[in-house]
Amino acid sequence: MGLFKKEERSSITPSAPLIFVPQNGFTLVTSGEMAVNATPALQSAVSTISNDMNAVRFTGGQSKVLNKTDFTDVYRSLLIDGNAYMLIQKGANGIVTDLVPVNNSDVTINYEKGKVTYTINNTSGDEPYYNSGNYDDSQVLAFVMNRGIYGIERYIGHSPIESLKTVLEQSQLANKQIESVLKESISPKLHLELMADAEDDTKAKIKQAFMNANENDSVIISDSQVKVSKLFTNDSSNDNLINLSKTLSDSVNSVATAFNIPSSKVGATSQDDAQSSVDMIEKQYLDSLIHNYLSIILNELHAKISDSIELELRPLTDFDNSKLIQQTIDLVGAGILPVDEAHAILVKRGVLSE
Known about the structure:
Elements: E1 10-12, H1 32-38, H2 40-55, E2 57-59, H3 63-67, H4 72-81, E3 83-90, E4 96-102, E5 107-112, E6 115-120, E7 133-136, E8 140-144, H5 165-186, E9 189-194, H6 200-214, E10 226-231, H7 237-259, H8 271-274, H9 278-304, E11 310-312, H10 314-317, H11 322-333, H12 339-348
Antiparallel strand pairs: 1-5, 2-11, 3-4, 3-8, 5-6, 6-7, 9-10
């Protein structure tokens, strides 16, 4: 018997749906996109990360075509599905002329004898990649996060959303239960207790007469023969609301943990965030953005476009040039930087006009 497992030919489309079905049947979520749209914390995480990634510019080889490309949807696909693809289009001189996003559902990964190729089918018929066909690995930018470790699994990514199945279910249920408790608290059912036995017909007439007398009125009218009380299905409504709210808060923190970003970025302030300064939180977020997300993009661009490509983070870290201006003023004030050089720097960065 051999020591190594033989790798067989295999093909797979990486955009298999995620299934989240709360046990009481309130909501059926059949894809990562639906999960994001149904969960505010997820929507916030995906939007924040993808928009900030798209704000980053590129320098080095082929940076012109990279900087004119809108990667927002590509980054969203990466975060939601764990995979994102773009076709590399080149001119006759071998220079990249365009990068065309491809729907994950239109991609089939083919793996045989250690070699990977991609079959792209324009199933809708109206995508920019008009013709279906097979593409070599070098012709496709394949951005993959949390990839597998063996065979074709090495080319298939997994979204952080996949780790949130139980959390999302609990969040969905907590939302529905909070809604139910609040509705019950605002408009509870009334219990009419008669002081004597009565036939069903009599009970129905008394109920209808009571409803007619008290319709659209905050004042309840009764007589000594009827005892009126509010009927709650749960007498500990306040405790329930506290517990359910904690479940929602925990789910927000779980989303932040799954995406490895501070919880304040998804609309909550966790205990850890409360003990950190704003600058520290921003540094933690930026470090995670670079090492967990942007590095995936940069590594693939190095491998298939140019190894001289680098990230320009200034649009993200100093979008209005305020930090640059202050640093320049401080250096001039300290006598470290001559005024003419400071002026040249600010002109080069577009802060000042010549």
